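Re: [help] complex structure
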Amino acid sequence: MSKTIMTVDDSASVRQMVAFTLKEAGYGVIEASDGEDALVKLSGCSIHMLLTDLNMPHLDGIGLIRAVRQSPAHKFIPIVMLTTESQAEKKQEGKQAGATGWIVKPFSPPQLIAVIKKVLG
Amino acid sequence: MKDKHAQVYQQEASELLEELEAALLELKDDSTNKELIGRIFRALHTIKGSGAMFGFDNIVSFTHDIENIYDLIRNNKLKVTDILTGLTLDACDIIRDILRGGSPDASIRQALQKQFTQLISGPADGQSGGSSDEDRHEGHETTWRIRFRPRQDIFAAGVNPVLLLAELKDLGPCRITALTDDIPMLEDIDPESCYISWDIVLTTDQGENAIRDVFIFVEDRCDLFLEVIDWPTLADDNSYKKLGEILTERGDIHPNTIQKALGAQKRLGEILTSEGHVTPERIHSALAEQEHVREMRARQSAASAGAATIRVPAERLDTLVDMVGELVTVQSRLSQLAERIIDTDLALVAEEIERLTAVLRDNTMSIRMLPISNTFSKFKRLVYDLSRELGKDVRLITQGGETELDKTVIEKLNDPLVHLIRNSIDHGIEAPDIRAAGGKPRAGMVKLSAEHSGAHVLIKIEDDGAGIDAARVRRRAVEKNLLSPDAVLSETEILSFILAPGFSLSDTVSSVSGRGVGMDVVKKSIDSLGGTIEIASRPGAGSTITLKLPLTLAIIDSLLVKTGDSFFVVPLASVEECVELSRADIEQAHGRHVITVRNEIVPYIPLRKSFAIAGAPPEIEQIIISSVGSERIGIVVDQVVGEHQTVIKNLGKFYRDIQEVSGATILGDGTVALILDVAKLAAKAEAETLVPA
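Output below.
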């Protein structure tokens, strides 16, 4: 069975590119446009991994990570955050919130897949 | 594909710009509104971040400074001024211009950028130091001692330590010992915590950074010790540090304890554990290190002495493989015997023989494995000659030449590959002028690659030529009455018609190809190797032909089945599952040979009928569900005996025309079992049902 990854980003283009790359690599993909949207969609299904941007309206990435780590179903899934190099503090905050890893924007599809392989196997 | 994403980006960025402008205008009147500033920052951030991913580098560099400024404002380190909002609005216009594909006056852009930079006091948030110091171990085979102790809460961060260990294994040969000393008593265990740590001895030429990169996400969630313990110049002989030295070096034990223990005339490891100075795992781990380094050094000295090889005539190898085959047969007889005569001593010997035979078999098979690179390099000349003859410019790229295949497979692969490469160059690659007109480089490319995929090897022949026109293949197939005009087929199915005998797309016959002989011959030889061919084509961009071949031909894993008094063998690779077929099932299908398995209708072939085996079937028969291409088909037998190591023997020439049987094998008790070719069996059954009797 293919593994399902949720990608959360308020930028449709990044989300689309990520989703496309993941589907090409054989993963199932659920897209969400921000933290709140992600939580709503998560309540109805179970995923193997979460890929989230940090700066988002409504509920940002940090808040989302904290919320996901609270849920019994997704307590132990790998969470990877998308950061930019200027966000060192955010990265730290994300790690404290329970993010497994991070990937620095801009990234290429092979880099993305490499990180996913690293945390998801 | 990239263009499609770029378009989405362009549209998205324009929307963001609008939002940005609206927010900026509001900010003019309400310069301390946190929420507005947040919105502006996010918009800039997304424009920049997404832009970088779709190649809008000039937007990225331009937006970077502006984003930094708003980040400062967001963190109360800078105040909003009218000058700033004005400048930002100007910047929006420039970004919009770039988005539309224009190239705004560089001087205006630079001037604006300069003004922004001036607004930031002090240097911008510096690029992080990066890995500037050189990794002196990179490129040299070095042995590392790694101790990885994850913090107990590591699972809560979604980390799977096993994946990290697997990643280390990819760096080079390594030995991993799990240290379980910290695991508490059962009642104290919190199942959500990690109590295990690992000792790893790794030999790699990738350098320290590569090792640290493995742990990059867990840096602050674990204790990680890295230490070089051996590198090539150190290795003057194969001896290595003593156990005691390793333990003290690792800090597992105090030197005095070692000295005391050494006084006793017993093995050090035993003493230390029995006296409770150190746990058995730690001794085990230290011993693993010793063994690892010794092995690595031995390997190195073997390499420096020049790989010792012996040339042996191929027949001798073939004889050896035959003998091993016979041995496997005899061994399975012995195992059967031991099972019948219940005798512990005999069972012990039988088990030992079984183990040794398996090792011997694997070793012998590996001797026959050859890298495919020799075959690949032969084709360089072929490509050169052909391209000159046809007035085309073609380069051959090979990849994965180190992939190993059974010698016989490689030998039989030569002719099909020659044919496929010819086809690619003759039909696939266009003449240089046509290529240039189509915006391709004048020189065509044929890529030959090999890779492992489970118990198979995939060999791909790719070209960047015109591809195969599926519509044309279809027309031809209809013209030749191979296909009815209204048949609905997938593209892969249509393309596979070029493998049919006498099928040619070429209207003219060249010295190289076009006679319609060839592809069917290719298919036959690949079939005889137990392989499959898949054709894919991208019109205008080229075609890819994939050959999927079994690793070895001599011995296969299979399922032994029985019908009447006859034994048959079905290659395990094609077996999906076994289900029961009862009388009720047969009656339910009203005489048609179909059964519903997991909500899917699967046709089946009664073997008893196909092979005209006398006798009545048992009350409950067995169906072996196998996959043939994308179809599932069942073969009905009386009884499934079990898994079987099948040594393939060729049938004599009298049986050459029997398609449904690909060979035979001798069972432990000497009976012969025929090896069923499920695909052929299915094809024949299909042909029989289509032609009314």
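Chain B has five domains: 2-119, 142-304, 314-368, 371-550, 555-690.
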